Amino acid sequence: MTFSVAVAGKGGIGKTTVCALLVRTLRESKLRPILAVDADPNSNLAEALGVEPGKTLAEIREEGSSPEGSPASGIGRVRSVGDEIQRAIAEADGFDLITMGRPEGPRCYCAVNNLLRNALDNLAKEYPAVVVDNEAGMEHLSRRTTNDVDVLIVMMNPTIPSLRAAKRIFALAAELPVRIGHKMLLVNRVGPGGVPSEVVRELADLEAERLPDVPQDDTVEQAGAAGRNVFAFSDQTPALAAMRRVAEVVCAVRK
After folding, report:
1. If we measure between CA atoms, which residue out of 185, 137, 132 comes closest to residue 158?
2. How many angstroms separate the CA atoms of 141 and 99, rounded?
């Protein structure tokens, strides 16, 4: 049974780095190979993982929705989309990557989206674990272009505005036609003084499990700015050590 984890949060929250670190920590466990899905239109997960992205699913969708690029209807079209997705996979040691790409354009995508969803679902079943780097609005989940989610991790920084943004994402998640097994909150970039007391008080009202905090880590910030991937971090990197604890909690809910 595939174990699926979706990570969501506002832009600039450090979500892509945390997703990449989660892939690294899961790769160290028995949950491998992992399918990493970059569902953020910014599409930075490949760089954080140190791989070259393949063709995006958005490109496949565009080609499949245009008359000149559409294969014949029926089984031929299903097979064509499945073959395109297989070719779009960026393969690496212990994980593979699929990149969703930019949002939809003005064409009608209902039929091709259905094909993509089914093909992606079938692909995901071949992996013990799937990690999805989602966008803040969670359009990827709202379009149901993935399986139901075992764990939804919503990220925030240790500030009141960031917490309120996280609450909005949880509220949106409750409205989606997707089964979410467990809702968890991850506080990122926590300074030496810990999470401020006023934030802790508001966290108490949140109906989500709080994961171990990830500390502010200058090594990670500098590596991101320089374009270095998470596999370049030493085992002593504080953020990586924290993400190992996060992975333990997340995997503990797996049946």
Report:
1. 185
2. 15
